[in-house]
Amino acid sequence: MSTVRADGEPGSRRATRVNLDARIRQGRARVRSSAYPIVQAAVAVAVAAAIGRYVLGHEYPFFATVSAWVCLGFSADRKIRKVAELAVGVALGVGLGDVVVRLIGSGPWQVALVLLVAATTARFLDRGVTFTTQAGVQALVIVGLPSLGASGGGFGRWTDAAVGGLVALAVTALTPSDPRRPVRAQSRTATIELVGMLRTLARGWRTRTVQDVEDALVRGRASQPALDDWHDGAANARELARVSPAWRRHRAELGALGQSAVLVDRAMRNARVLARRSQSLVDSEAPHELAGVATAVDALARATDALGTAMMTGATPTRARTELLAVTRSLDPFVLAPDDWQVQSLVLLLRSLAVDLLEAAGVSPGEARAALPEL
Prior knowledge:
CATH topology of the largest domain: Methane Monooxygenase Hydroxylase, Chain G, domain 1
Helix content: over 70%
Largest sheet: none
């Protein structure tokens, strides 16, 4: 049976397009997950600027806006202590910078001096890394650009920074966030990438289309940032839940999401190996028995989609477990490809992928392995 190939589009251009599509999908997902925090920060910046201009009478309340944005940022994982550290760090740096400029002016040695004083003072006051970093940065800005936003008298810039920090604290206190929300969204983004790769791979096997298999491999490689975001997001949320009384009740779910991130990442790596190993089979003139394994991969894609939906909503992945168990029990290499040892090797790899997904769905390792047909 001859291999079917798409006409007209060079392989390098096709790979670039697949990579670009993955970047666009993941970029949209990041924007969706950060949209609300960014809108909050934009409103806070406007409020801080309005207070600086109309209440304090500062014509250019530059540091009020800078402080509000630095303290809030675009992350949904806002914690009052962290925002307070940033607010005090910004105000400390701006205040020390103002003092240095007024006493000894600005220049290379003044920049070195203000950084030394700001960083040392910040380290003495608090152990937070961001606290010290922001204190140093803001002091350097004041001394390095002494005329920037100078309004409101001797300590106008310091009061602007304090206003921005207070506005950020108010926003954080009045709009408490759920640490699970961004991690759930990241889990959905990552599982969508795995689902898309598996479906493309299954289509390539079924139609014997080399370019589909290559596209699946390219998409699998391009998915790594989404998987890394999920893993990092879950780790950060677990750390916050460990120290925050309000979030401590979510530790179990956040721990499960973090473990699922590791397992789905492992499943994606297995899927990439599958795609690489199968390229020569699809491109071969020999009639390899790929229809059965293609059907199994399609079923895994459907179950993974159900798993991603359950994780995104916080529901128990009952449907995903049922479907994954059914697929796993069918992965007998001697049934799917009784006379083709090369395809049997693909089934063996598929068994590892299925076990990873079962464990990600909450099935114990022993039960997941017990679902595999005996060899």
